[in-house]
């Protein structure tokens, strides 16, 4: 989490007033794995619902709910309707969150998306809903990463793509 948050911090020059929202969303995007708030077993939704119960900023809740193509896995789990209560804002903040998440390994190392996807497949197995959802989202994730990398390069920042 620290490594992904450090990436978010490095993107502050690109986000202006949304930089705090990005950093917060990166820190909180996997909150739903916490056993004390786990209800559905789908961490983006569990985390977002918890944040909403705490009455945190709704944009933050929606970013957490929709991170890294969560809608695809939600459909596989039969939770698409429930996730839809958290609109996907399709903003640069959202793209940057996806970039930070999907180019950082679980151990905090910078990785390409292809390496991250391979790690997810190895960890869960090909038939699990997690790699199936991420695979379904792969084109959107790659597009988000490319958007962030291009913006960073235009501002003189060098990022992992």
Polypeptide structure, described:
By secondary structure, the chain is an all-alpha fold. The protein has one domain. Helix content is 63%, strand content 0%. It has helices spanning 2-10, 12-15, 19-28, 43-53, 58-65, 70-76, 80-83, 92-102, 113-124, 129-154. α4 (43-53) packs antiparallel against α5 (58-65) and α9 (113-124) runs antiparallel to α10 (129-154). It is globular and about 40 Å long. The mean pLDDT is 95.
- The first-to-last residue Cα distance is 18 Å
Can you write the helix and strand succession as a string?
HHHHHHHHHH
In the residues, how many domains can be counted?
1
Count every beta strand, where a strand is a DSSP E run of 2 or more residues: 0
Poorly predicted runs are none
Radius of gyration, in Å, reads 15 Å
Strand content bin: under 5%
**Shape descriptor:** globular
- Report the biggest beta sheet as strand number plus sense, adding barrel if it closes: none
What average pLDDT do the residues reach?
95
Give the helix proportion (percent range).
55-70%
Total helix count?
10
Structural class: mainly alpha
């Amino acid at each position: 989490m620290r490594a992904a948050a450090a990436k978010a911090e490095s993107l502050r020059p690109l986000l202006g007033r949304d930089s705090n929202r990005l950093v917060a969303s990166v820190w909180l995007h996997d909150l739903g794995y916490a056993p004390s708030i786990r209800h559905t077993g789908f961490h983006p939704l569990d985390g977002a619902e918890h944040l909403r119960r705490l009455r945190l900023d709704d944009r933050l809740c929606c970013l957490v709910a929709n991170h890294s193509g969560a809608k695809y896995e939600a459909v596989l789990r039969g939770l698409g309707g429930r996730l839809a209560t958290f609109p996907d804002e399709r903003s640069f903040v959202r793209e940057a969150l996806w970039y930070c998440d999907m180019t950082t390994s679980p151990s905090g190392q910078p990785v390409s998306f292809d390496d991250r996807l391979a790690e997810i497949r190895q960890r869960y197995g090909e038939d699990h809903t997690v790699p199936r959802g991420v695979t379904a989202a792969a084109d959107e994730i790659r597009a988000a990463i490319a958007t962030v990398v291009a913006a960073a390069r235009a501002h003189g920042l060098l990022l992992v793509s």
